[in-house]
Specification:
D-Maltodextrin-Binding Protein, domain 2, 5-stranded mixed β-sheet, 2 domains, 13 strands
Amino acid sequence: MKSKILIGLIAVIVIIAVIGIIIFSVQGEENNENTFVLGMDDSFPPMGFRNENNELVGFDVDLAREVCNKLGMKLKVQTISWAAKEQELDSGNIDCIWNGFGYTEERNEAMTLSEPYIKDESIFFVRNDSEYTSQEDLKGKKIGVQSGSVQERRLNEDEFGQEIDEIIGYTDYLTALMDLETGNVDAVYMSRITGSYIMNSQNKDFRTFDAEGIGEESKGMVIAFKKGNTELKDKVENAIAELKAEGKVKEISEKWFGEDITL
């Protein structure tokens, strides 16, 4: 009799466990479907970076959070290697690349891109005490870029890049600018927005000058989705359009840049 009761209890426990697993799995699937996974480099201020409390913050993070509120989705910010960003997107590990991502024709062929939402350009940063005053002065010198960036590709493909002593790739621009300070590189070729933010917020003693005729003219920063995922792209763009009409995009821009620089 006792053995029958024991067997019955075990059977009940097994049934409850199975039901629990099924419910957990279903809830997990629903949560995944309702989660928007943003892939970003966490060292790209002011678009996306870690603050003094190790929190992921920035213009793109704030804007994405407002977009998710519009869409009724939960935002998950996931740090990725910038050099492997396309693979992260293609594999489905992230829903988008949203972190100061510059438009190029090559990227437009490989991914589904949003319309540009911020105008940016690539410029040179040098030490204030250096003798360099123009791009011409950097021939035969060492120039730092972020690995996997638009700037790296432009220098590698452009005629000017062939006249540089060495193009040095870094995991992030914060490290590149630290090497600029110590003299390990002669200049850093990077986003004006990001470089200026770092220079001003950290009181870096740098100067800047324009890049001349290196690659195609920048159309601005975009959000990248997996090739063919126009449904999600359209939802995000529509949400941004609503936020613009409400003045929220302007508010976020003024918070991070002191003015509205959005397109």
